[in-house]
Amino acid sequence: PLCIKVNKSISVFLIIYFIYHIVTEEKLFAPLNLDIEIENGDSEIIYYAEVKGKFSFPASLISLNVGEASSLKFTHVTYTPSSYFFSYIKANIRGSLTSYYFSTMSKMAHVEAIYNLDKGAVSNFFARALGINDDKIDMKLNVYHEGEKSLSNGTLKAVAADNSLTVVRGDAIIGEEAVGSSTSIYGKALMLGQNARSVASPSLEVRTGDIELAKHSASISKVPEDYIFYLKTRGFSQREAESLIIRGFLIEDEDPEFVRELIDRNLKAVGY
Length: 272
Known about the structure:
single chain; 63% strand
């Protein structure tokens, strides 16, 4: 396994680790086991899986341990055209974890994350799936509040074009011992075309009567007509308006430039 251990008593600078999981051959299984431990301070990890050969199968098992006096920004990106992908992420959080997930272009991809929150821990996650052609992408993120006064916020987004299927789902669970905790989880999906299929399925489970907040919602739609109308009154064409709305829906302010380029390139491939 590849192990990364960060202790900021060694360095006062923000260290950014970029892990490039690339497969260039056809019909190749390429596993990766990644163990990350953040003891204190602020750190950033970017994991990017890319396939350049057909019918290959990169897979990753990722363990995240975020200490009480630490915060981690974790970005997980997959681009595996004409191939398959699997990733399982497990995070034990005592400090703060902010995570960004983006998956696109895959014959079949499954990304699953399980977050366990200790006392006072904080988790914010943003998961996005963009499907074009015949892509099939499934993303699942579960958050378990195990410690009191823990906090989580999750946003799940999916866009499906052509004949693709995109699924974003997740459970936010507040356990019996997690008194005074708060959670919110939202799912949104856009379908671009009659043959596109998309699912947004956030769910909520509360096992204690002593919480601060618990809420969730889900919506699936085409590009909102009222947004299109507003932009058309500002001089944009129908297609230009749709393109702006879809990009605004998918792109996060914290996205690295290569993620923005992936989104832009794939949307242009389907005419947006």
